Amino acid sequence: MTASVPLMLPCAADEIPATIDEAHLRRMTLGDRSLEREVLEIFARQTVVLLGRMAGAEPAFAAAAAHTLKGSARGLGAWRVAQAAERVEQAAREGRDSAVKAPIAGLEAACSEVRAAIRARLGHRDEC
Fold first, then answer.
1. Mean pLDDT within 36-58
2. 48 sits in which H/E element
3. Is pLDDT above 60 for 9?
4. Cα 118 from Cα 124, distance rounded (Å)
5. 22-122 architecture in CATH?
C-alpha cells in the first residue's frame, strides 16, 4: 500500500508565495536530499528548454509547453512559475501570438527567479 501525498496549493492570491515551497519540496521528495537535488536540476534545465521552444511558437504549442511547466512547478512547489504558466495557457486560448507575449515574459521572469534560487541552493555559479 502506498501513501498518497496531498497536493498543497499555494497561499491566497493576495500573498506572495516563496520562490520554492521548502515544505512541499521536502514532502514530494520524501526528504531525500539527493532526489531533491536531482529534481531541482532537471526543473532548471526544463525551464530553459521549454522557454526556448516557446519563443515565437504558435499559441497552441506555447500553451502545451506552459502546461508542462505548470505541472513540474507544482510538483516542487514553485508556485509563482505555476501561476505564470497558467496565465500563458489562458492567454493562448485566445489563439493570437500577441496575446501570449506578455504572459510568456512573466513566465520567463518567474523561471529566472527559480533558477537563481536553485543555483544558490545547490551552489552552482554558472549552470541552470
1. 95
2. helix 33-54
3. no
4. 8
5. Up-down Bundle (1.20)
Domain ranges of the chain: 22-122
| Three cell numbers written together for 21 | 515551497
Task: Compute the distance between CA of residue 62 and CA of residue 119 in angstroms, rounded to an integer.
Answer: 26
- The residue whose grid cell reads 523561471 is 111
Query: What is the mean pLDDT of the segment spanning 66-93?
Result: 96
Q: How confident is the model at residue 17 (pLDDT cuts 50, 70, 90)?
A: low
Higher-confidence position of 17 and 77: 77
Quickly tell me which residue has 502545451 as its cell. 64
Write down the residue that cell numbers 519540496 correspond to: 25
**CB under 8 Å to 39, separation ≥6 — which residues?**
25, 28, 29, 75, 76
